[in-house]
Design a protein that fits this description.
Elements (H helix, E strand, L loop, with lengths): L1 H21 L7 E9 L7 E10 L3 E7 L3 E12 L2 E7 L2 E3 L4 E4 L5 E7 L8 E10 L4 E11 L22
Parallel strand pairs: 1-10
Antiparallel strand pairs: 1-2, 2-7, 2-8, 3-6, 3-9, 4-5, 4-8, 9-10
């Protein structure tokens, strides 16, 4: 009987460790799919990155970090009358369980003051910064593939999960 209770205690302690690792404050509970950044040409100072984000809890995307540019920003493009306008926004809400698409012509990430051209076929490290309802910060680290053109979606609505994304926990 003592061995059984030791095993149960050990199993419970192991579950606690797993739960603690999952709840690590630096690990965003977000999945990123169909991740890519647009290739740039020499002299070009900015480029965009695109993806589909699904949060496991209500979150807000509040920042973008990359060593490839002096700054990363969250942008929105929308029609105002008959003129397409792009502007930086402070954050983007990610409702729990709902896919939010960052795409050309809509919400997207901008890399400003590129330090070097983004070359087709390369990858660029990008960190997305989120806040939750309590104001706690978490991050999602990605290796974003650089492409000249938007990747073609696989059969159905989305390509294979996780392409271009690092694990998020």
């Amino acid at each position: 009987m003592l061995k059984a209770s030791n095993w149960i205690l050990g199993a419970l302690m192991g579950a606690t460790v797993i739960t603690s690792a999952w709840a690590h404050p630096e690990a965003a509970h977000v999945e990123a799919h169909n991740v890519w950044a647009r290739a740039s040409v020499p002299g070009q100072q900015a480029s965009g990155a695109f993806m589909q984000l699904t949060a496991r809890e209500p979150l807000r995307l509040v920042g973008v970090e990359t060593p490839a540019a002096a700054s990363g920003e969250i942008h929105e493009m929308k029609m105002e009358g008959d003129v397409m306008r792009m502007r930086q926004i402070e954050g983007l809400d990610l409702p729990q369980g709902q896919m939010v698409e960052l795409k050309p012509g809509g919400y997207h990430l901008m890399f400003q003051q590129l330090k070097a051209p983004l070359k087709d076929g390369s990858e660029v490290p990008v960190t997305l910064v989120f806040t939750d309802a309590k104001g706690e910060t978490s991050r999602l680290h990605l290796q974003v593939p650089v492409k000249r053109l938007a990747p073609k979606p696989a059969h159905g609505a989305a390509a294979a999960p996780g392409h271009g994304a690092a694990h998020n926990h």
